[in-house]
Specification:
Blueprint (H helix, E strand, L loop, with lengths): L1 E10 L2 E18 L2 E15 L8 E15 L4 E12 L3 E15 L2 E8 L7 H5 L11 H5 L12
Antiparallel strand pairs: 1-2, 2-3, 3-4, 4-5, 5-6, 6-7
Length: 155
C-alpha cells in the first residue's frame, strides 16, 4: 500500500492538506487463450482546509475486480470486466466494461471500449456544496469586446 500526505497548494488564502492511502492485490492466470485477473483495491482520500471547510472531503472505497481477456488471434482480443465498488459517500457502484483490442504491431494498441456505471449517486454532490462558475461569454458578446489600450508616458 501507499500512504501519502502532501500540501495540495493554495486556494485563495487557504492551505489544503490531502492524505491518500491506496493498496491493491491482484491475481492473474492464463489458460487456453484466456487471461483472468481477480483482485481487490482499497483507497482512502481526505482533504482538509481550516480556512475553507467547504473544500474538504473524506471518503474511502473498497473494490472487487474481475476481468477476462480472450485472445482471438495474435492481433485481436476481447476483454470483459466488472468492478464492484463500495464508496463511503456514493454507495455501491457496479461498473461492467467490455472492449475489443487490436494490436497490429508491438508498439501500437487500439481499443474500442464500452462501459456503464450503475447504482451510484454523485460522490462530489454528496460531499460538497456545488461551486458556481460564471458562464463564458457567448461568441456574440465576445465579438463586441474591444482591445485594451494603454498609454505609456515617460517622465
Amino acid at each position: 500500500g501507499v500512504r501519502a500526505t502532501h500540501d495540495a497548494g493554495q486556494v485563495g488564502a487557504s492551505t489544503l492538506r490531502q492524505r491518500v492511502m491506496f493498496g491493491n492485490v491482484l491475481f492473474r492466470t492464463e489458460w487456453a487463450g484466456n487471461r483472468l485477473t481477480l483482485g481487490g483495491e482499497v483507497r482512502t482520500d481526505n482533504m482538509e482546509s481550516a480556512q475553507r471547510p467547504d473544500l474538504g472531503y473524506d471518503y474511502s472505497i473498497g473494490s472487487l475486480i474481475m476481468q477476462d481477456e480472450v485472445s482471438l488471434s495474435e492481433e485481436v482480443g476481447l476483454l470483459g470486466s466488472v468492478r464492484l465498488d463500495n464508496h463511503s459517500a456514493a454507495g455501491h457502484i457496479i461498473s461492467p466494461r467490455g472492449s475489443v483490442r487490436y494490436q497490429p504491431t508491438a508498439n501500437l494498441t487500439m481499443r474500442l471500449m464500452a462501459g456503464q456505471v450503475s447504482g451510484a449517486r454523485s460522490a462530489l454532490r454528496s460531499q460538497r456544496k456545488p461551486h458556481r462558475l460564471r458562464p463564458l461569454p457567448s461568441l456574440s458578446e465576445a465579438a463586441r469586446l474591444k482591445p485594451e489600450r494603454r498609454a505609456i508616458r515617460s517622465t
